[in-house]
């Protein structure tokens, strides 16, 4: 590679971008929050980066590594890697390097900023006690009144299809926003800036809070921001339960009761979705922290492509590296990743699409039935159109992303 060829002058020095360094069990997590790039490096890597930060030449770095480590260190190769990922550049190219960093494409995601003192108060011990009190009161209320317990049939509707769908989409958008706000507020507690944008998990369009900066924190401080979304979901369920209790005491229309009961089921579904670690969910990122494996998903893809390449005699996939950071962990996650993807596709073709087609068949029958009212015809037809559009949009975004990845490879 060109970056490796440049390392011919033993008197060469480099400029290093600002990097955060966090000790991990088997090395160091080093990266830059603004670039959102973090990598796991061994002690030899940290030594080389530190020497480059001090302005040492290539010859001095090699000499120091020879004295510090009993085994030979390939300094040229590692400096080439640092150049490739954009952490360093030759000193004489400092102006161009800084201009390149400054001219990165504008990030259109919403940047979240909250004073650290306020964020700390929201996730302080007294505040958490208040949240526990709300959860306890909601649980006690549900124990005393069966109408406040989870209604597994709340999502089964026989009328007002479109109105119910729109209401649930609006309420789900609100609870999703609160979920992501929980992540970003907990990160702000530790002074970490975050961004909010949109993405997809397979064919599901999702909101995404970018918490890449957490890698600059000690390991024990990363768990709260990652799990804050689930904590917020539990609090949302408690608040909705208490709202249902209030509506019942006011003899509210059963339609509103069912809407909020259905919302609770939706929140529970999104919480269970977080355990699909093959989709880079909250639990996935917590697992990465626990295993000291920041790029577990991407390495699993590389590992599986390498296996496919070998099994197909080089016709499919791509050759992989000679060794991996933690092969045992990687093998386990790769198996889970593959099984999860297969099951998700089975769910799509066996449950999701057939269910949608049944709604389409029902809508067609209602439209062709002269006895049905105009409201029923429009209601079920719009419901089918909106549901189909949401699924089609998700599939389009997913397949477009897969096409882009294939071209990149």
Rg from alpha-carbon coordinates: 26 Å
According to DSSP, the number of beta strands is 8
* Domain tally: 3
Q: Helical segment tally? A: 14
The amount of helix comes to: 55-70%
The overall pLDDT, averaged over residues, is 85
Strand order of the largest sheet: 2-3-4
SSE string, helices as H and strands as E: HEEEEHHHEHEHHHEEHHHHHH
- Give the overall silhouette: globular
Query: Proportion of β residues?
Result: 5-15%
Distance between the termini: 17 Å
Structural class by secondary-structure content: mainly alpha
Poorly predicted runs of 5 or more residues: 1-7
Largest sheet: 3 strands, antiparallel
Structural account:
- With 409 residues, the chain is mainly α.
- It has 3 domains: 2-102, Outer Surface Protein A, domain 3, CATH 3.90.930; 106-290, no CATH class; 292-409, no CATH class.
- It is 61% helix and 10% strand.
- The chain contains 14 helices and 8 strands.
- The protein has a 3-stranded antiparallel sheet. It has a 3-stranded antiparallel sheet with strand order 6-7-8. It has a two-stranded antiparallel ribbon with strand order 1-5.
- Helix 2 (43-53) runs antiparallel to helix 3 and helix 8 packs across helix 14 (374-408).
- The longest helix is centred in the C-terminal third of the chain and has 42 residues, at 327-368.
- The two termini are 17 Å apart.
- The model is unreliable at 1-7 (pLDDT under 50).
């Amino acid at each position: 590679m060109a970056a490796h060829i440049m390392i011919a002058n033993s008197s060469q020095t480099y400029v290093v971008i600002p990097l955060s360094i966090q000790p991990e069990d088997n090395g160091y997590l080093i990266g830059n929050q603004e670039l959102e790039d973090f990598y796991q490096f061994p002690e030899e890597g940290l030594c080389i980066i530190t020497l480059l930060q001090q302005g040492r030449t290539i010859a001095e770095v090699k000499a120091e590594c020879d004295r510090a480590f009993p085994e030979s260190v390939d300094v040229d190769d590692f400096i080439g890697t640092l150049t490739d990922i954009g952490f360093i550049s030759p000193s004489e190219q400092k102006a161009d390097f800084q201009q390149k960093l400054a001219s990165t494409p504008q990030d259109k995601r919403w940047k979240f900023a909250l004073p650290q003192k306020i964020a700390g108060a929201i996730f302080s011990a007294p505040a958490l006690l208040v949240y526990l009190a709300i959860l306890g009161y909601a649980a006690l209320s549900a124990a005393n009144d069966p109408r406040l317990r989870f209604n597994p049939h709340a999502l089964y509707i026989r009328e007002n299809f479109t109105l119910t769908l729109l209401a649930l989409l609006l309420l789900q958008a609100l609870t999703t926003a609160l979920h992501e706000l929980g992540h970003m507020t907990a990160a702000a507690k530790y002074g970490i800036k975050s961004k909010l944008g949109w993405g997809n998990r397979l064919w599901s369009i999702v909101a995404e809070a970018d918490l890449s900066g957490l890698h600059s924190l000690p390991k024990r401080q990363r768990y709260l921001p990652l799990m804050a979304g689930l904590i917020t979901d539990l609090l949302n369920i408690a608040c909705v339960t208490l709202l249902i209790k209030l509506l019942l005491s006011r003899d509210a229309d059963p339609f509103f009761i069912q809407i909020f009961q259905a919302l609770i089921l939706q929140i529970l579904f999104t919480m269970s979705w977080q355990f699909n670690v093959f989709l880079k969910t909250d639990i996935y990122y917590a697992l990465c922290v626990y295993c000291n494996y920041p790029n577990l998903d991407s390495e699993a893809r590389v590992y599986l492509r390498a296996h496919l390449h070998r099994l197909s005699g080089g016709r499919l996939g791509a050759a992989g590296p000679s060794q991996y950071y933690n092969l045992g962990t990687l093998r386990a996650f790769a198996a889970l990743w593959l099984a999860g993807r297969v099951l998700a596709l089975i769910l799509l073709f066996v449950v999701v699409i057939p269910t949608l087609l049944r709604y389409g068949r029902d809508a067609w029958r209602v439209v062709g039935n002269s006895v049905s009212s105009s409201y029923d015809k429009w209601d079920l037809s719009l419901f089918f159109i909106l549901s189909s559009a949401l699924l089609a949009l998700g599939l389009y975004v997913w397949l477009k992303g897969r096409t882009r990845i294939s071209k990149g490879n």
